[in-house]
User: Which sequence fits this backbone?
């Protein structure tokens, strides 16, 4: 997570070189069993926190405020690295967006391989055609 | 012609432009939708816009909003009376723009009409008359709530439907001072806030359902004012500030608590002491659906009509409703490898529900996989549902796979996904490559389904990046997530009759999942962050 030492913001926007890190982290978190659902809701919490935030927030405060999510060690480590000593509202918002990106990348790895099965059905064999015929007959 | 406009005849002809004031329309909704006037009666759009120049509804200033108004007009004019009443309620609320965006998104999600209307009104209605404009939930929360509801298991759906049905009721029946639409919206918001605990392999799903149930019972029959103040930690009502906020000096911790309260109404409700002011008066004895008494105040008649509109239909108990959750369970089992079940068990179960042929060895694996689903899974599906899904896949095939694909993909992403066939889009004169690259530019990946022509084999890829300045030079970056394989190719390759061999033998791109609807609102969660260049696009 060395990339976080430079911060997530560059020139007033999210750094544009984050996506490779996002994919690497997503793959790694899936390997270690991080729940994508928790990443998703953590991102929402931090995004809303950033909206309400008037003074900088420290890592310990974030850890205490998100303790109810029972974060995996990998996720806590990311928060620690990204927040550093303190984070402003903008930096917290950037972290939330970064987490959204990671959750999306994880979702792609989880769900895209399931798409073929999700749209699968039996071949239109003679058996299948006969079953359709029987069903129609029974329906009248 | 619909009744969306003022009902007057066109008075402008021959392209002649005139400046005139809009007359008061017969239909109050028309005041808020110049495009409805335009579509219904007017030949000169510019003349109509004069009446809205420099107002929040000036489409020249709000390009996307202008497009929304056009969609609204078409929605309104083509709608049944119940939908028109709903759209009028939506526009009369304090946060109509986000409410309408939520309604569009929920349309695309395919949410049941009553749930869609409930959630959209929950977004459009504001909690407090003064101060920040905040709905009872946000547009993105509404979409997440609808998707989470649809992906619940049979027991969760049944429980939730019962809670939604009883909303706004006291011991003796419906309470006229209660607001059952807002109650329902809050219950659904509580479901969305527990989405990470309601998955198919959740270990505390039962606890999450119990929390939702206790919350629904707790807020049942409360007044709207009470619901508004006590299901958030935003201090909108100075007389009802939660003790944990009032007594907290640390502004950062306070912001964190308010944020959590905005996600989870159950947390806020408990922080307020889990109690609220009850609407105590008994309901009118006449059933809501009967014609209103002519002597009764107009407001009562209107509320009776609304009560009839808000009645919940029967819950859809078809076996096919459980199929997306089964696939969700399989998808998670795949990435967690043998931790949940063996790949052979998962594949046998998958083959079973998709109507595949089952030889003896596969039946054994299927049975063993099914035992895991029953023992370790949380409310995934019943055995009868499994059989029903298999029969459907073998026969008539009524399963709406496009919607299920969209539900799963929308689960953790910032958009509603809809399936589009390459061939259909090209036939209709659309440009699928432009749609794909536009989505990539917005930061949303686009899953693409590829079909091998010779055999029934479907593969899924995802477009995750692009390069190139002009349409002819676009390069897309594709990944096959299950294999970790990545490739770069010219975008127009996707339209070839036969794709390169990397995609399989004689393969062609069949369909793609296009992100739609809520990308109108700035990600994430509809919250703009101007400091990061993430703007509200409306």
Assistant:
């Amino acid at each position: 997570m060395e990339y976080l030492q430079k911060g997530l913001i560059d020139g007033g926007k999210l750094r544009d070189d984050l996506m490779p890190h996002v994919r690497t982290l997503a793959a790694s978190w899936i390997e270690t069993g991080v729940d994508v659902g928790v990443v998703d809701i953590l991102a929402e919490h931090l995004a809303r926190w950033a909206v309400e935030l008037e003074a900088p927030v420290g890592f310990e405060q974030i850890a205490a405020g998100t303790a109810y999510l029972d974060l995996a060690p990998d996720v806590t480590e990311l928060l620690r690295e990204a927040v550093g000593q303190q984070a402003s509202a903008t930096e917290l918002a950037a972290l939330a967006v970064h987490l959204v990106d990671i959750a999306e990348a994880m979702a792609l790895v989880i769900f895209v391989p399931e798409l073929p099965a999700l749209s699968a059905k039996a071949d239109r064999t003679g058996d299948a055609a006969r079953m359709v015929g029987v069903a129609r007959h029974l329906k009248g | 012609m619909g009744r969306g406009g003022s009902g007057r005849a066109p008075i402008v002809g021959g392209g002649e432009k005139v400046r005139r004031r809009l007359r008061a329309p017969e239909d109050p909704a028309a005041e808020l939708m110049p495009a409805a006037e335009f579509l219904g009666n007017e030949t000169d759009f510019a003349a109509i816009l004069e009446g809205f120049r420099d107002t929040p509804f000036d489409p020249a200033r709000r390009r996307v909003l202008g497009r929304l108004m056009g969609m609204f007009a078409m929605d309104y004019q083509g709608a049944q009376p119940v939908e028109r009443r709903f759209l009028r309620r939506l526009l009369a609320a304090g946060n109509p723009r986000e409410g309408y965006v939520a309604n569009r998104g929920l349309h695309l999600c395919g949410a049941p009409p009553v749930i869609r209307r409930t959630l959209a009104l929950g977004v459009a209605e504001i909690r407090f008359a003064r101060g920040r404009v905040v709905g009872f939930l946000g547009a993105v929360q509404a979409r997440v709530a609808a998707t989470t509801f649809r992906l619940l298991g049979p027991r969760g759906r049944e429980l939730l439907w019962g809670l939604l049905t009883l909303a706004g009721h006291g011991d003796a029946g419906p309470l006229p001072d209660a607001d059952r639409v807002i109650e329902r919206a809050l219950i659904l918001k509580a479901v969305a806030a527990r989405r990470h605990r309601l998955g198919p392999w959740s270990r505390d799903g039962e606890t999450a359902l119990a929390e939702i149930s206790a919350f629904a019972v707790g807020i049942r029959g409360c007044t709207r004012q009470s619901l508004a103040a006590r299901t958030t930690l935003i201090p909108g009502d100075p007389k009802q500030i939660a003790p944990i906020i009032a007594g907290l000096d640390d502004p950062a911790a306070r912001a964190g608590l308010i944020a959590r309260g905005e996600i989870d109404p159950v947390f806020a409700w408990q922080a307020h002491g889990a109690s609220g002011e009850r609407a105590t008066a008994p309901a009118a004895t006449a059933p809501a659906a009967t014609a209103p008494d002519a002597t009764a105040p107009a407001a009562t008649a209107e509320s009776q009509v609304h009560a009839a509109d808000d009645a919940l239909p029967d819950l859809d108990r078809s076996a096919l409703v459980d199929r997306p959750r089964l696939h969700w369970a399989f998808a998670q089992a795949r990435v967690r490898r043998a931790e949940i079940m063996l790949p052979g068990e998962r594949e046998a179960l998958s083959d079973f529900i998709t109507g595949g042929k089952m030889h003896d060895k596969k039946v054994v694996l299927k049975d063993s996989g099914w035992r895991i689903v029953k023992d370790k899974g949380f409310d995934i599906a019943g055995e009868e549902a499994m059989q029903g899904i298999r029969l459907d896949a073998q026969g008539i095939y009524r399963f709406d796979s496009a919607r299920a694909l969209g539900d799963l993909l929308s689960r953790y992403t910032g958009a509603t996904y809809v399936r589009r066939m390459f061939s259909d889009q090209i036939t209709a004169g659309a440009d699928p490559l432009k749609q794909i690259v536009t989505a990539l530019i917005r930061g949303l990946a686009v899953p693409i389904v590829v079909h091998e022509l010779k055999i029934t084999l479907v593969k899924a890829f995802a477009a995750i990046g692009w390069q190139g300045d002009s349409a002819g030079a676009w390069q897309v970056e594709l990944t096959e997530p299950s294999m970790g394989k990545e490739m770069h190719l010219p975008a127009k390759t996707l339209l070839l009759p036969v794709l390169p061999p990397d995609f399989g033998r004689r393969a062609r791109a069949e369909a793609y999942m296009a992100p739609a609807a809520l990308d109108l609102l700035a990600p994430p969660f509809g919250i703009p962050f101007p400091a990061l260049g993430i703007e509200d696009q409306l």
Residues 416-516 of chain B form one domain. The longest helix of chain B spans residues 360-376. Chain B touches chain A through 76 residues (CB under 8 Å).
